[in-house]
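As practice, study what follows.
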Amino acid sequence: MSPFLAYVIVFLFGALVGVAELVSRYRDEPAKAILSIPGFLYIFVNVCAACLALYMIDVFAWGFGVDEKNSPEAKRMVQILVAGFGSIALFRSALFTVRLGDNDFNVGPSAFLQILLNASDRAVDRSRASSRAAEVAKTMKGLSFDDAKTALPTLCFGLMQNLDTDQQRTAGKEIRSLIDDSTLSEDVKLKCLGLTLMNLVGENVLKDAVKALKNETD
């Protein structure tokens, strides 16, 4: 396998890891998180980490226990997989630790890369928070909390065919705590209800459920 092809594959694997992490963390609208500028930055950091990992693997000739003489292609594939899918873990474990006094300090790029990933993730979260605040206020407008607290979750859960039971149970607990909370205004409760449901079913399903509920109550 040519070095160029190896780096192309690692590039794609690194991007895939970044995309998968964003999808798992921003379930309501993962496409919007991925296509945002902070989302691109998060994916870019993952790609850079993967390519840097492959470069270091080549420099230090790490074989990860695969005998190159018997199967050079297998060794190269293992190196690509480790670099593409385990770059951050590789940086944590493959380099060395310096002991100064009673403290151990990791030497290597893992801490720096993790800082970049965390900063990018927070930027994605802030971007989505701003969008979600505007969207939930617009979507829930015209409803009352008393009308929506039972009917809207039931309708949202009914629309979804593969919603996890544990997720429904967790959402139910959050909704019950909203109902029992006497310190929040009805408007805040309504928006929190919308956000809870949006986390599970996404913006579009919530909009359709609200529209159907409004048609039912009109």
